[in-house]
Amino acid sequence: MPDKGVVIVRPDELGPAEHKTWRHLRAESEAPENPFLDPVFATAVGRVRPQARVAVLQEDGTPVGFFPYEKGPLGHGRAIGLGVSDSQGAVLRPGIRLDPRRLLAACGLAAWEFDNLEAGQRPFLPHAAEALADPVIDLDEGYEQYTDRLRRTSSGFLRQTRAKERRLARQAGEVRFVYDCRDLDALRALKRWKSAQYRRTGRRDRFAQPWINGLVDLLAHGDDPDCRGLLSVLYAGDRPVAAHFGLRSPTVLSWWFPAYDRDHGRHSPGSILLLHLLRAAAADGIRMVDLGSGPARYKDTLKTREMRVYEGAVIRPGPAGAVCRLGREPARAARRAVRNHPRLARLARRMLEQAGRLRTG
């Protein structure tokens, strides 16, 4: 597509007509309705990340594609919301032929980095450095059918989790679950628990970054049925003991920020919450819960299948592109080496946990 067919705007400059077209193109692609590729998410990121932009691809003045991104120094671009976005790419009319390097040139980018490029993004897939497993839970047949399957594959998980819920109720008070909770105190508790978990495990505290904190608050107050934040809380007595804040579309829920009160850790309140959440989500029309890439034992237990997402970068020839490559490739290669070697992964995890213990005293 020629450069004159690309118009660059801020996300908040897109109006209702552009949102409608964006979602229509997304539906035509037959990709899952992942909320991270919705215009509401792009607009929310734009409010906390001033360099967020959307390239609108046009034919005869009609939008035929949308490419959300962020532009950094030296033309170093990144997927919009990189670091917290679980699905990335462009929304294109089926059949559109796209040269990603020409698109980057139109956007004034020397490179575009992604770490959760969704499958089906054909123009960008040749630039992927690694494929990652993205476990999901399919609920299109309902919660009871899902738990029937879980009994066959992990019967101990269901039995033990329900026993722990009964013990939690005996020791801490009646267990109550709220699927769509508007309790801002519970959201603040979730952030505290999650920040403590990040520090304890030696990882960067996402909620110490103002833009992520602000993004969650914006999405928590959203009311667009096609893309909004969803806070779910498990209470024991009058106290929240576990919570999850995710992003949802009409049919897909992204498992985003789960956390629990460690004072009740022996009861596995996070697992109790997740089972309640799956039941309520299935009743609410959610057909798939995207657990997100990244290893976790509970994901292996609960998943019904895996999708593929991709990490990599599109880099244009030239000095600025070379600088971007030199700046990112060593760190990406190191992460790739750790992920692909279980012993290195275990060692890295232990080192992070030790660093976390030192940090938290």
Automatic annotation (TrEMBL):
Signal peptide: none annotated. It comes from the Bacteria. Transmembrane segments: none annotated. Residues 159-299 form the BioF2-like acetyltransferase domain. It holds the Pfam family Acetyltransf_6. This is GNAT family N-acetyltransferase. It comes from Streptomyces thermospinosisporus.
